[in-house]
């Protein structure tokens, strides 16, 4: 948990490093900072420990989540290319600092023990993301995305908070274990029924969190925001924010409200089905690669929620594995998208449509190969990490005795076949379509990250037990 | 104490009386006062200086920055109120919790100070460039 | 001197709950129906304030200070949100000279 303190201090020192007039040191410094935080995080391994007067708690599950979050942050920072060294309108020191601060928020969201910390962590993460979404100040698309994200995000926060207040009224506690006791007591007093405070409180908390992880029907902001934000921050949003959001949802639902499963489980079934169907079907119709990735992130939120819903003992490890596989593949896809869309820019505007990828394989075999592997992983084709991610999630759903899960499984499997269709679009564009992409010069770090993520995806696809056993 | 809705009747009476007074005075001045218009009299009054242009023009964004910074640093005061109220209690208690709490407040203020130094170094508060 | 929690407790808890719920709903309706970004933003603040009121009421009825501490955090975070939100709105106003969200339609599915 010293990672939180370290990352906050590193963020501040990053702000002051920005005064040095030497933008070259920012990227390596930030990477080193994240690696130090990652090392500090492992110090908590195998210790169940409460921090800051029972505000946060670390255990192996949280350490694993923090590792995924910091790894994603590391990869995103590594592919940031200093946000354009020559552009006087960019503020790399501030961007890196805000990325570090938002990692702090994400860590608080996966380790919270008190709802105050959930709220503070969520807000640190969200407010940072509002700023980063609008960081391209002169682009109207970025402006619009920032405003939409901000209005929708603060609306969701309001809903979450009202739920928290109602649950506090019903259980007299903000502590997640205290709430669990309060819920059990309230249930006893009401003779098995739920009081109106608890009922609406749980639903509102769930809705507030689902807004943040963009599950349907609360997903309307997602495609616009992901599309309008600068690609590098979209990569961050669709990995770190999603992982932290799902982890927070899982944590509060599984620790505080397991005894009222019927109350949140029933609506969640419909939400999961709607998320899967809307995310996948709408992704088919997209012309823009970036927008397709936004819808794909909605659909992956659906898969992640299946295992939260299934509530099996294996849910922990499935959730971790799926988040890891998804994060790595998504960052690879965005890494390819960023360089290709900039190389194919028309009139100074980055071209993010599928056509920009046409003929990518001719001159840029590495980019095309990484893209292929990441798309296969997102689609869940065997021999990639994504296949085992989906496999573990589906087997969780399958082993749940409730017959409802058979139907969810049917929908999920149908929708992953739909997914195969649109995930193959960029691959086909890169290999089969005629087009010309000039050879793109990549920095050694960029190449290394692409090779690393691609190798990891294949490695996890060949031997999932390597990390599955740790989780 | 238990209040009945009828206990709030005086408030209602007061509300009606207040509204009635406003309406009555407005109507009375409208009817009673003589109406004499002239160019000078209808002019917008601005301390004797001739008024220029529209009042709703965009103003420098620097005002906005200063106002926002004020709000940000001002709100942090609310974390000091509970701390200050309880501090004498900690001092009087035998354990050394007071020292811990003092150090924690120092850290909090230190972080705020770092933010302030950042703001100054960024040149947000230099009014003329 | 009468203690503030006692003053709060002179009104039944139910009234607070209904009043906060009403404020919250007004906020939601404001967010969903208004088109001016600043007014939407004010509606969101109204929602947050209804939460604050509810938390304070619960906190004094339960004689538990945790609820009031939460209110402090909500206030501090809301101030940070205001700073970022107004900055975003100023940025948009500089680019398109309006803050009507209906005119923001560069991104459509």
From TrEMBL, chain A:
Signal peptide (from-to): none
EC identifiers of the protein: 7.1.1.-
HAMAP family cross-referenced by the UniProt entry: NDH1_NuoN_1 (MF_00445)
Annotated membrane topology: Multi-pass membrane protein
Family: Belongs to the complex I subunit 2 family.
Regions crossing the membrane: 25-43, 63-83, 95-125, 146-168, 197-220, 232-253, 268-285, 292-309, 321-340, 366-392, 404-424, 445-463
Location of this chain's protein in the cell: Cell membrane; Endomembrane system; Membrane
Catalytic activity: a quinone + NADH + 5 H(+)(in) = a quinol + NAD(+) + 4 H(+)(out)
GO terms, molecular function: NADH dehydrogenase (quinone) (non-electrogenic) activity; NADH dehydrogenase (ubiquinone) activity; quinone binding
GO CC terms: endomembrane system; plasma membrane
Main subcellular localisation: membrane
Superkingdom assignment: Bacteria
Subunit field text: NDH-1 is composed of 14 different subunits. Subunits NuoA, H, J, K, L, M, N constitute the membrane sector of the complex.
Protein name: NADH-quinone oxidoreductase subunit N
Domain NADH:quinone oxidoreductase/Mrp antiporter transmembrane: 114-415
GO biological process: one example: ATP synthesis coupled electron transport
UniProt keywords, alphabetically: Cell membrane, Membrane, NAD, Quinone, Translocase, Transmembrane, Transmembrane helix, Transport
Functional note: NDH-1 shuttles electrons from NADH, via FMN and iron-sulfur (Fe-S) centers, to quinones in the respiratory chain. The immediate electron acceptor for the enzyme in this species is believed to be a menaquinone. Couples the redox reaction to proton translocation (for every two electrons transferred, four hydrogen ions are translocated across the cytoplasmic membrane), and thus conserves the redox energy in a proton gradient.
TrEMBL record, chain B:
Keyword Ubl conjugation attached: no
Pfam families per record: Oxidored_q4
Uppermost EC category: translocase
A GO CC annotation given for this chain: plasma membrane
The entry's keywords: Cell membrane, Membrane, NAD, Quinone, Translocase, Transmembrane, Transmembrane helix, Transport
Reactions listed under catalytic activity: a quinone + NADH + 5 H(+)(in) = a quinol + NAD(+) + 4 H(+)(out)
Keyword Ribonucleoprotein: no
Domain of life: Bacteria
InterPro entries attached to this UniProt entry: NAD(P)H_OxRDtase_bac/plastid (IPR023043), NADH_UbQ/plastoQ_OxRdtase_su3 (IPR000440), NDAH_ubi_oxred_su3_sf (IPR038430)
GO MF term set: NADH dehydrogenase (quinone) (non-electrogenic) activity; NADH dehydrogenase (ubiquinone) activity; quinone binding
Coiled-coil zones: none
EC number: 7.1.1.-
Membrane topology value: Multi-pass membrane protein
Transmembrane segments: 12-32, 63-85, 97-120
Location(s) in or outside the cell: Cell membrane; Membrane
HAMAP family per UniProt: NDH1_NuoA (MF_01394)
Subunit structure: NDH-1 is composed of 14 different subunits. Subunits NuoA, H, J, K, L, M, N constitute the membrane sector of the complex.
Function: NDH-1 shuttles electrons from NADH, via FMN and iron-sulfur (Fe-S) centers, to quinones in the respiratory chain. The immediate electron acceptor for the enzyme in this species is believed to be a menaquinone. Couples the redox reaction to proton translocation (for every two electrons transferred, four hydrogen ions are translocated across the cytoplasmic membrane), and thus conserves the redox energy in a proton gradient.
Family per similarity comment: Belongs to the complex I subunit 3 family.
Protein name as annotated: NADH-quinone oxidoreductase subunit A
Organism: Arcicella rosea
TrEMBL record, chain C:
EC class of the enzyme, as a word: translocase
Gene3D superfamilies cross-referenced by the UniProt entry: 1.10.287.3510
Keyword line: Cell membrane, Membrane, NAD, Quinone, Translocase, Transmembrane, Transmembrane helix, Transport
Gene Ontology cellular component annotations, sorted alphabetically: NADH dehydrogenase complex; plasma membrane
Enzyme Commission number(s): 7.1.1.-
GO biological process, one term: ATP synthesis coupled electron transport
Membrane-traversing stretches: 15-32, 39-58, 70-93
Coiled coil: none
Pfam families the record matches: Oxidored_q2
Subcellular location(s) of the protein: Cell membrane; Membrane
Complex and partners: NDH-1 is composed of 14 different subunits. Subunits NuoA, H, J, K, L, M, N constitute the membrane sector of the complex.
NCBIfam families in UniProt: PRK05715.1-2, PRK05715.1-3, PRK05715.1-5
General function of this protein: NDH-1 shuttles electrons from NADH, via FMN and iron-sulfur (Fe-S) centers, to quinones in the respiratory chain. The immediate electron acceptor for the enzyme in this species is believed to be ubiquinone. Couples the redox reaction to proton translocation (for every two electrons transferred, four hydrogen ions are translocated across the cytoplasmic membrane), and thus conserves the redox energy in a proton gradient.
Protein name: NADH-quinone oxidoreductase subunit K
């Amino acid at each position: 948990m010293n990672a939180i303190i370290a990352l906050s201090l590193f963020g501040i020192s990053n702000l002051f490093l920005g005064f040095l007039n030497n933008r070259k040191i920012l990227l390596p410094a930030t990477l080193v900072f994240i690696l130090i935080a990652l090392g500090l995080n492992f110090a908590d391994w195998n210790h169940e420990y409460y921090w800051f007067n029972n505000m946060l708690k670390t255990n192996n599950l949280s350490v694993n989540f923090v590792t995924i979050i910091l790894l994603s942050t590391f990869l995103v920072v590594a592919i940031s290319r200093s946000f354009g060294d020559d552009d006087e309108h960019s503020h790399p020191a501030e961007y890196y600092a805000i990325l570090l601060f938002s990692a702090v928020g994400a860590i608080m969201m996966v380790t919270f023990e008190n709802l105050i910390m959930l709220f503070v962590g969520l807000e640190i993460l969200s407010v940072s993301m509002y700023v980063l979404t609008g960081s391209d100040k002169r682009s109207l698309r970025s402006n619009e995305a920032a405003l939409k994200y901000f209005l929708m995000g603060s609306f969701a926060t309001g809903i979450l908070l009202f739920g928290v207040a109602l649950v506090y009224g019903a259980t007299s506690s903000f502590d997640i274990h205290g709430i669990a006791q309060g819920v059990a007591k309230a249930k006893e007093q009401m003779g098995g029924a739920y009081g109106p405070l608890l009922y609406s409180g749980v639903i509102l908390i769930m809705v507030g969190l689902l807004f943040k992880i963009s599950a349907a029907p609360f997903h309307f902001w997602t495609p616009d925001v992901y599309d309008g934000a600068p690609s590098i921050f979209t990569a961050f949003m669709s990995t770190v924010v999603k992982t932290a959001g799902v982890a927070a949802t899982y944590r509060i639902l599984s620790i505080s409200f397991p005894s009222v499963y019927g109350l949140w489980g029933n609506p969640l079934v419909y939400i999961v089905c709607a998320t899967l169907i809307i995310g996948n079907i709408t992704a088919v119709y997209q012309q823009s690669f970036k927008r397709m990735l936004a819808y794909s992130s909605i659909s992956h939120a659906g898969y992640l929620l299946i295992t939260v819903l299934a509530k099996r003992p294996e849910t922990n490890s499935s959730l971790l594995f799926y988040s890891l596989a998804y994060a790595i593949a998504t960052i690879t896809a965005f890494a390819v998208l960023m360089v290709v869309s900039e190389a194919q820019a028309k009139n100074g505007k980055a071209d993010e449509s599928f056509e920009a990828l046409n003929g990518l394989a001719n001159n840029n075999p590495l980019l095309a190969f990484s893209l292929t592997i990441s798309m296969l992983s997102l689609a869940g084709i065997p021999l990639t990490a994504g296949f085992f991610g989906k496999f573990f999630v589906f087997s969780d759903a399958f082993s749940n005795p409730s017959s409802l899960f058979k139907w969810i499984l049917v929908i999920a499997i149908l929708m992953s076949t739909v997914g195969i269709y649109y995930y193959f679009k960029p691959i086909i564009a890169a290999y089969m379509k005629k087009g010309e992409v000039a050879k793109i010069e990549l920095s050694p770090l960029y190449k290394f990250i692409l090779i690393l993520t691609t190798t990891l995806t294949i490695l996890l696809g060949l031997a999932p037990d390597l990390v599955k056993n740790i989780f | 104490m238990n209040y009945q809705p009828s206990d709030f009747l005086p408030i209602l009476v007061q509300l009606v009386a207040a509204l009635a007074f406003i309406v009555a005075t407005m109507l009375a001045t409208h009817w009673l006062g003589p109406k004499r218009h002239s160019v000078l009299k209808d002019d917008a009054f601005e301390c004797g200086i001739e008024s220029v242009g529209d009042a709703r023009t965009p103003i420098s964004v620097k005002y906005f920055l200063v106002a926002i910074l004020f709000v940000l640093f001002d709100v942090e005061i609310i974390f000091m109120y509970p701390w200050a109220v309880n501090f004498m209690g900690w001092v009087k208690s035998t354990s050394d919790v007071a020292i811990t709490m003092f150090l924690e407040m120092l850290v909090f203020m230190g972080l705020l100070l770092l933010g302030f130094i950042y703001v100054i170094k960024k040149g947000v508060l230099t009014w003329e460039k | 001197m009468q203690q503030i929690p006692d003053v709060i407790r002179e009104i039944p808890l139910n009234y607070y709950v209904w009043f906060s719920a009403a404020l919250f709903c007004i906020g939601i309706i404001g967010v969903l129906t208004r088109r001016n970004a600043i007014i939407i933003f004010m509606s969101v603040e109204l929602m947050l304030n209804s939460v604050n009121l509810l938390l304070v009421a619960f906190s004094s009825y339960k004689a538990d200070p945790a609820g009031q501490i939460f209110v402090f955090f909500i206030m501090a975070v809301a101030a940070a949100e205001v700073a970022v939100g107004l900055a975003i709105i100023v940025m948009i106003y500089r680019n398109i000279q309006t803050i009507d969200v209906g005119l923001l339609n560069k991104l459509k599915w």
